[in-house]
């Protein structure tokens, strides 16, 4: 069952990237992140009341609350980096870098959670890393602007890996929808603090209506992805759930071609094939 949830997470995560890209053409990425987090939080709490887990809040262990909070902070940092990179860089390059968090997650799961790294999984890690490298090809000289979004994309990957590990620990013994809702609250606070720290609160009213619609839709897609992801994380091993979730890159690449007409070179296509092959090898 965790496999179906992981696949659902990948599908909705792929849609999130495309919808978010459409919503930050003129809107500041930090402002967009703060707005969409409101949608995610509402979506998450609706699901909590639908499944009736709100009454178990008082019984959540303090340790779980701490790790869910840390996971929320890591998610907030990852989002801020990711949408900054997504606004300034090509989606078919930003997403592969972000998905390199898979390798970091697997290594951290082995070191911190004691999850085994078999020969097959080791081969999968190498293939995923190689595929990501091939997809991040440079177009001519690397300018400072390009370095900026690339560094942000790698920052997103690092924090995303920490999110998975901290979330795995925090979700233990907690109903997954409730855990998702609690950590989203932390993300919301962090996102809006960043908006006010950077003095961008005045830009909220100036967000174009069409972009606001895409931002809200991306929030709904994110909420659905999170609910699936943390249910899968609760039921299955983090070292397998994370790679499946990262297959969302297939959805992203497909829609980036349809919507933004971003085409992959032969080298990048080879990298995508190697990355997907590495993920599938890990599931054997």
UniProtKB/TrEMBL annotation:
One Pfam family per UniProt: EamA
Keyword Transmembrane helix: yes
Membrane-traversing stretches: 30-52, 64-86, 106-136, 148-169, 181-199, 211-232, 238-260
Alphabetical UniProt keywords: Membrane, Transmembrane, Transmembrane helix
EamA domain location: 2-136, 149-283
Superkingdom, natural source: Bacteria
GO terms for cellular component: membrane
Similarity section: Belongs to the EamA transporter family.
The protein's name in its UniProt record: Transporter family protein
Organism: Gemmiger formicilis
